[in-house]
Amino acid sequence: MSFIFSEQVDQLIDDQIKKARILIVDDAAFNRMIVKEIYLANGFVNLDFAADGEEALRKTMKIHPDLVVLDIMMPKLDGTEYCSRIRKNTEFKQMPILVQSTLVNSETKAKIFTAGATDFIGKPIDPKELIARTNIHLENQNLVRRLVSYQERIKSEVDQAADMLGSLLPEQRQIDVFSRRYQMQIGSFFKPISEIGGDFWGQRPISEKQFAFYIVDFSGHGIHSAINVFRFHTIMTEKKIVALVDPGGILTELNTQLNQLLGKGHFATVFYGIVDIAQNVLLYSGTGSPQPLLYERETGRVQALDSSGIPLGVLPDVQYDTKMISFRPDDALLLYSDAYVEAENENGEHITEEDLKANFSQMCQTGTLSAQQIVDTLVQNFQERVGNFAMDDLTLNIYRRTTGQ
């Protein structure tokens, strides 16, 4: 059965090759006829002809041949100049050009190939060689076309996935609503290492005085991580999760579900917090995410919050605790993905946690920068220090209280 299928595939490929449009370019009518008869005898019927380079250029632009058999010595415009001109057009960068000539010295060949020829056939033409080289180059061209088509399809699907992933992130309009409702400045930055990544962040209202926020980093990159993000987002909308107002309890339930969904070796680090602006507190829990930095306006001190814990999806039946800390007006909380302190430039340099802590503290103490301006400055510092050598998704969030309740 597989042998029969293989034969069918080979026949289909052969049929496609035989349907290829071939342009034969030669100033001698007799030479054009010889090449024509060789092709006809081997099943090629889609043939066109040109008597010089200028006519060949016009016909190439008009009919878009799959392959050109080109003489070198011609009036008006020779084969070398034809190659040079046609290769300047991106549409014909990959079009096979088989050059035929009696001039076979190495200097001439080098000139021809430099101009853009694909292959060389000596004169007088050997029919078997012509057909063999034609088949090889047409097969290669078909492979290239299929590869390009495949890449375009994959890119289109990745772009759609990236758009879907982007639609899950809070829009600026939603951020503005949260800022007004909870008298909170919110700054954010998100950039995946590729078109799609495994970082994710979000927020949701709980009551008039409480709202929740989270930052998530799934292991790996690309499609698989993006699928896990979609899974996470779906779980976060379930009634059972929405009804919970205990960060530790939420992470415990998330872990139970993700253990059943994530593949082997996949996991997620999460920091989940709930701000209570009436009680001026932050309830939080973590699963191995980078330690968020809390700036206390009253003391001018920055402390790292404990976000330790087993990442989600690693072990079943893990219980996560909820911690509580004061979060007063003018205090600020910075969340970031591990890329910020782990990514290195080509010299092995990176931003340390102490560097980040010092920069964050200094900007908060000025009192003149908004949350978004602080985020933008931190991103600029990262780019200046690390450049384009980041090997992971990068996410930054700042929540800064503005007035008391």
Structure explained in plain terms:
The chain is an alpha/beta fold and 405 residues long. The chain folds into two domains: 2-149, Response regulator (Rossmann fold, 3-Layer(aba) Sandwich); 169-401, Phosphatase 2c, domain 1 (4-Layer Sandwich), CATH 3.60.40. The chain has helices at residues 2-18, 29-41, 53-63, 79-87, 106-115, 127-168, 172-181, 222-236, 239-242, 247-261, 339-342, 353-366, 371-386; strands at 22-25, 47-50, 67-71, 97-101, 119-122, 184-191, 199-205, 210-218, 268-276, 281-286, 293-296, 301-304, 323-326, 332-336, 394-401. The chain has a five-stranded parallel beta sheet with strand order 2-1-3-4-5, sandwiched between helices. Helix 3 (53-63) packs parallel to helix 4, helix 6 runs parallel beside helix 8 and helix 8 crosses helix 10 (247-261). The model is unreliable at 1-6 (pLDDT under 50).
What keyword list fits this structure?
alpha/beta; 5-stranded antiparallel β-sheet; Rossmann fold; elongated; 2 domains; 15 strands
Average pLDDT level: 88
Instruction: Please identify which CATH superfamily of the largest domain we are dealing with.
Output: PPM-type phosphatase domain
Strand order in the sheet with the most strands: 2-1-3-4-5
The number of domains is 2
* Class of secondary structure makeup: alpha/beta
CATH class of the largest domain: Alpha Beta
Q: Give, in order, the helices and strands.
A: HEHEHEHEHEHHEEEHHHEEEEEEHHHE
| Percent in strands | 15-25%
Helix content: 40-55%
Question: Span between N and C termini?
Answer: 76 Å
Using only C-alpha atoms, the radius of gyration works out to 32 Å
Low-confidence stretches: 1-6
Net shape:
elongated
CATH architecture assignment name of the largest domain = 4-Layer Sandwich
How many helical elements?
A: 13
Q: Which fold name fills CATH's third level, the topology of the largest domain?
A: Phosphatase 2c, domain 1
**Number of DSSP-assigned strands:** 15
The biggest beta sheet reads: 5 strands, parallel
